[in-house]
Amino acid sequence: MGPISISPTHEQRYRDQHLDLDFEHKTASLDARPLGLTRKEYDLLALLIQNVGDVVTREALLLRVWGYSNQIRTRTLDVHIRRLRKKLGAYSGVYIETIFSVGYRFQPFRAPKNVQHLPSVMAIGA
Amino acid sequence: MGPISISPTHEQRYRDQHLDLDFEHKTASLDARPLGLTRKEYDLLALLIQNVGDVVTREALLLRVWGYSNQIRTRTLDVHIRRLRKKLGAYSGVYIETIFSVGYRFQPFRAPKNVQHLPSVMAIGA
DNA sequence: TACACCTTTTACAAAACTTTTACAAGACCC
DNA sequence: GGGTCTTGTAAAAGTTTTGTAAAAGGTGTA
Q: What is the pTM of this model?
């Protein structure tokens, strides 16, 4: 708890079925295991998550995470994205999407449409 | 916490399976053996323990244990952490965690998850 | 003063993290 | 498909932070 609550509606955390990101403590965990993100990795993921569902341009990421003004050519963003994906393991494909020539987009985990194996009332041959 | 007891519910001591810290008498023992902490060592450990589970920044530690205002470059904190760890012996890894570029965090001792060999009520073929 | 004990500094080693490099792989357009 | 631009990747290089041993500095006390 910071001394002043800036915005009552400001989300303290992101959470879905697998990923949990605590903005206050700057920690992240996947399936209840601490993800052990480095500072830059966290900043990057946090910024993407704060724009869930929206593309964040490379330009914006480089500016807000690195403070790089435009026109700087570097691969550091890509390298960090890669390490983030690695730590997200099997879910990386679900979460981080590349938008060619634009940037990246974070997508929340959505439970796969459950092919409901309800009691097979209608099972044939029962 | 300064000279005044702010909260009536303020814990008098910290205790887990191995470590016991008495805030009132400012003493600590590990597996029932007095730890023989020096003043600064005690203050440091106490501050960390008063924030169990939370990261305490280097800045905060330097301010509250040493009274150092910001922007002072010193390795004295690290040296004290080292001596604390030494005295905590085999448990140091469990208790004191380094958060790179941020500070340190005290974690309580947790008994290893007991692989409960409960009666296999649901065992097949029983 | 001499001693014992504690704290801080110093100087360097080691570890953690970030950025660059160099090239492979993929995407887009003709 | 060929050409070009963008992204992915592994490894090296660079930077910053932390760990450590030893020396130096303080403080209290007999």
A: 0.83
